[in-house]
Amino acid sequence: MLELKNIKKSYKTGDFIQHALKGVSLKFRKKEFVALLGPSGSGKTTLLNIIGGLEHYDEGNLIINQKSTKKFKNRDWDSYRNNCIGFIFQNYNLISHMDILSNVEMGMTLSGIKAKNRKRKAIEVLKKVGLKDHIHKKPNQLSGGQMQRVAIARALANNPDIILADEPTGALDSKTSMQIMNLIKEIAKDKLVIMVTHNSDLANTYANRIIKMQDGEIISDSNPFKEKEEDESYQIRKTKMNFFIALHLSLNNIRTKKGRTLLTAFASSIGIIGISLILSLSNGFNEQIDFFEKNILSALPILISKQSNLDEDFMTMQEDMTNIEDYPDVDYVIPSDNTEEKYIHSNVLTNDYVNYIDNINKDDVIGINYIYPMSLNILQKVNGSVKQIPTANLNITTYPHSLNSNKKMVIEERFDLLAGRMPTSKEEVILEVDSKNQISKDLLEVLGFTTNNNINFNDILNSQIILVLNKDYYENLGNYYIPRQDLNSLYENNDNLILKVVGIVRLKDDYPSIVSTPGIYYSNDLQNYLISINKESDIVKAQKDADYNVMTGEKFDLTTKEGKDAKENVLGYLGDDVEPSMIEIHPKDFTSKENIVKYLDEYNENKNEEDKIFYVDQANLMSSLSSNIMDAITIVLVTFSSISLIVSCIMIGIIMYISVLERTKEIGILRSLGARKKDIMRVFNAQTFIIGLTSGLIGIFTAWLLLFPTNSILKELTELENVAIMNPLHAIILITISVILTLIGGLIPAKIASKKDPVIALRTE
Ligand code: ADP
Ligand code: MG
What we know:
This protein has 25 helices and 26 strands. It is α+β, with helices and mostly antiparallel strands. Strand 7, helix 6 and strand 8 form a beta-alpha-beta unit. The mean pLDDT is 87. The strands form six sheets. Strands 15, 16, 17, 18, 19, 20, 23 and 24 form an eight-stranded mixed sheet that branches. The protein has a six-stranded mixed sheet with strand order 6-7-8-3-9-10, with helices on both faces. Strands 2-1-4-5 form a four-stranded antiparallel sheet, with helices on one face. The chain binds adenosine-5'-diphosphate (ADP) and magnesium ion (MG). Adenosine-5'-diphosphate binds next to strand 1, strand 2 and helix 1.
């Protein structure tokens, strides 16, 4: 039961006020076919829209089921349109991107009716209007009459009590008009149909009540409602559109604009591509650095040498005590006490300390190397004549020895054996060549070769080095000792040690060349043996007692530290039992390196400053530097790429706004079918959601594809394999960010869409 009480409506355009309805009072029966007849501009459409809840009256009252609509909220109007009203428009107003079936289902979709029931009902009404064979066609594949039948089917589908038709045959030829009119008349048997027309013939032929309007007023009513007539009521169900329906609706719309959607998604995916590539790269680099740190840098031994730089903490502490500011802006120089030695610490590598190192956890260490300053007295037959070989500038030194006799030696772990075998006795040495199998000519001379040609491994393995003990090497001349000159007999001496090269090794290509230097390597056993014999030699004994260098006559001032050190150096050179000049500790891996460092730190606890032993952890120095740089680069690049994300966010906003303009009509239709403002927002949010998701997926997929060329380029440049690795978590986060950002970008356009006046929206083409 529907009643209009003194309804007034006016439009204001600028200063001009158009009174479209000037107080219309009408009552309708539950079932009748009413024709609203009147000239153009008389207010028929306005009246119809007010009855249908598309527009709201300024004054008066619209009474539905004895209930005033004055207190109706938007929500109530939406439900009212959805359940009680079926609209039929002159220009059909079908949603063009949806097929006939979906168009007819739309009202039911909005009221949350299940898909199965929806479809059954829609087919039923389509059958009724004679279109059951066309249900999968799009509106533009139908004739005008057929489209109007679809509109009628849609109006009927949700079984409303009132059908409002605004010039339904206005765009049709007379024959088709008659068919449509018959259909509407049929419907009017059990519904209230209010039809606007300016064609009085049609009104007279089909309607059972004709209301004439002029200038916003009713001028006649052929069959007014009488008070005693029966009075029945309508029921109103609330409408709601869930997100999946909105998604479905937008998917349909997007399907008609595949190209544009893909292009938009691709453009806005560029930021995602950038960020995910950068993250993949930094990911991979960090992993490489980790690997480097764990496997390669740990191959760098911890060094304990007689002189060591103090650690950073200690240095800053010292600096802070001076009260002089850093980088002063002054034009004078400040004298300071022993600036050079301030940060240099003399490690006293006592027997105690050597014992402490010997007691290190054997499982953490694959080798220890004690390097003494002793020089080797080497003779070699070069081109048939015996020569003394000066070794001072050659890398002839000890290789690390294993603490566990059953464990592999460091050399076996880190070197490839190119020829021969590993040494097993103290007379056996190995030759290390560089990555190009090169060895310096000076070192080759030690082995007796003076050729520019390549030398076969076998020839090298057959070579030998004559090592002369001090007692034989030096002859006494009063207070001095000089090397003997009769080299041939010295060469034949029976006490000489004959060193044999038993193996040729090369650093494995996993390790950077800093891990080792080409040279001749002998065992700690040989070193210890030589020291044990040489320290008893006459020259060492004489040097111990002398305050001058017994080989050169140079005086030592033994009252000074420098003098004492100089004498100590000569003794070390001659093979006396002095402190080692360097201890190398080779950790097993990264974790054991940490353990060793802890062990070395423990030694220093509660020690006086001068008794502390400082070590150099080379691996730590290198790795902390590289990973810090990596982090900084990543932050900078990600920031740059983020800008492109923001840009794409704005772009999405613009594209959504265009889409809102394009879909204005659809918004109007949906509103006329009872969609709430919220639902309209959902439709657009669903659209941006799809674009955001697509662009995220495209971005991640493209970035993933780009990893392959990136990695192969990096392999060319750096020899590192699979540097760029995509973290799946990053991928998911980036897709989420893409969705959220596009949603934000589309929010304002979606809001604009939802605020559109349904009547104006319906009028746009
Ligand atoms: P009809 O359907 O009888 O031709 P309408 O109800 O569409 O007439 O319009 C009645 C009057 O109100 C007309 O003068 C029209 O120009 C005016 N009008 C209708 N809608 C608007 C609007 N949104 N803004 C301004 N004027 C309007
Ligand atoms: Mg009109």
